[in-house]
Amino acid sequence: MPAVAGSLYMASQHKGVPPPLPPPPRPLPVINLGRLTMDSASRALAVRDIVLACRERGCFEVVNHGISRYCMNGALEAASEFFQLSTERKEEFASDDIRQPIRYDTSSRDGISMSRSFLKHYANPLDDWIKFWPTQPPTYREKMGEYAVETQRVSMQLMEAILQGLGLGPSYLQEKLEGGVQFVALNNYPQSSAKKADKIGLAPHSDYGFLTILLQSSPGLEVMHHEDDAWTSVPAIPGALHVHVGDHLEVLSNGQLKSLVHRAVLNPNESRISIASIHGLSMDEEVHCAEELVDEHHPKMYRGSSFQDFLDFLPANMNRYKRCHHSDNDSGMRRQQPAGNAKRRRRLQQLKGKAGQG
Ligand SMILES: O=C(O)CCC(=O)C(=O)O
Ligand SMILES: [Fe+2]
Question: Which of 267, 274, 278, 279 to probe ligand 1 with, by most ligand atoms within 8 A of CB?
Fold first, then answer.
């Protein structure tokens, strides 16, 4: 018998030995964020762990981040109470115009994420945006506002650590990040029904911006790590937050970090809420590859683009999402030159869309 791939499998079958099991999924890194504010040795280790997780997995969970359970539960309650309002009340925020400061809708225009409803609004600086937020439920502004301020703080800590780990220094872009966009997406998914075959809540996509910080009421988020071809389910660890790399961090790092493809599946046991907080530079500020990370061995791989460019790109390309289910994502921020391994490129072409935003 020629030595072909799979011959071991066939040999073991002959002897009635069960085929070898695939390796178990590697657990997601869990980072204790408290170490960032301890002594410099602890901080250095935390910075190393964060950058390693971004580089190798595209995401990680954070604990000891300083956001209280009370605050996190408050945000989930406020979101849940909003989605329980009458259709009429919620539709006060309905709009097809993705430039609106707040937007409610009952299905995505990608033609896939049909069972999700969502409310999206901006949050940083809070004083500029909170006036657009719902006044029902009565505690919405207070609870969501507190959570938004806290996630913005955590995003600053994380960005400082990542920029330090990339060798750019913790205060790189600091002012621009402080005044940058925080875009909050509240997603509401029904429990999956045994009758319906379609279990997808939100189609595969990567997020815009540098980082996304995600809070989920129960499991449903799935991620595809860079070297994998399979989905990994993200557990809903009580008190933890999920963090993943967005497109603009891929650009800024000149491809050293890659944005994470992710999706949401419907939970078989309960309806589910997730709150995604997306952090980037301000609307018109272009993100470019950091000059410090470009040299003759690492040529510049991306064009510059802003959040605004992304909003301009979306409406004209919505039909493509419908027709193809996934976009090939040539929004202008993607690589000028193909990079990385061919498998990942093909996967990105198939999978990358913008279903989760806009
Ligand atoms: O619901 C989830 O877990 C994912 C949400 C998401 O990816 C998004 O809002 O961009
Ligand atoms: Fe997303």
Answer: 274
